[in-house]
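Late entry, evening session. Most of the bench is empty. Finally got around to the prediction I had been postponing all week. Sequence below, unchanged from the version circulated by S.P.
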Amino acid sequence: MLYDSIMPLDKYSATWVSHSSISDYLQCPRAYYLKNVYKDPKTGHKIKIINPAMSLGLAVHKVVEALASLPVNQRFKQPLLEKFDKAWQKVSGQKGGFFDPQTEKKYKDRGIAMIQRVVDNPGPLKRLAVKIKEDLPYYWLSEKDNIILCGKIDWLEYLPDTDSVHLIDFKTGKQTENEDSLQLPIYTLLLHNCQQRQVTKASYWYLESQNKPVEQQLPDLQESEAKVLKIAKKIKLARQLNNFKCHQKGGCYACKQYEAILRGEAKLVGQDDYRSDVYAIPPSDMPSKQSQIL
């Protein structure tokens, strides 16, 4: 036991969890496996899917989040719509999941409207911000269980009156975040453990419909940690047992998309920054959502 207690922690052997991977697992363990564990035996790479909604989110986030790295007086020096047009080029066409120009124009126009909303209503983006040094903030959620929690925060507004931070997450979708979402609990835990300032405010900014961030109730840290750790342990056990079954007989919408890649029905459109193979699924091959809607 003494030997175990002095063994150095090894982050490479740990189970890493994040808001996105936990959401994947809760939605469908099979989809979690295909997105976070599986590697194509031919390339040795992980696989990912790109679609129009994801591309819209990637382009808008790239423009808005990058402002935090600039001094306040330089953030809007270059027109943001110019930056957005440049960011959009990286997701244009099939590499962004667009198989016809009409669909791409519709999504790009939505992005332009979001960027224009930010230009017209900069709010916290014109104030001081805190930038975490690490590209991917993480901490040991449980040293005993060898589990690490990680994640990227969209924006941290600095509140000088209290020397604290305001956590802001940008939303580019049309739906509001569920009340039982673990996003704020996870991000608050990360900020509590990865930087020295207290989180005194948290908000979602729905860029398609709101001119300013919508404040949320701050989660309890102890409750959040217990809830996240419970799910993380289930994920670790599933990985150890290699047990990733879909909750639905015959598969659900989430895992069927990835099964389409394995069946050779998706189009390889490139690689991401982590060397994952990125696929797009033509609209005619997309599994119907009708069963879930009903």
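Two things to note before I forget:
The CA atoms of residues 253 and 291 lie 9 Å apart.
Residues 1-5, 288-294 have pLDDT under 50 and may be disordered.
Will write this up properly tomorrow.
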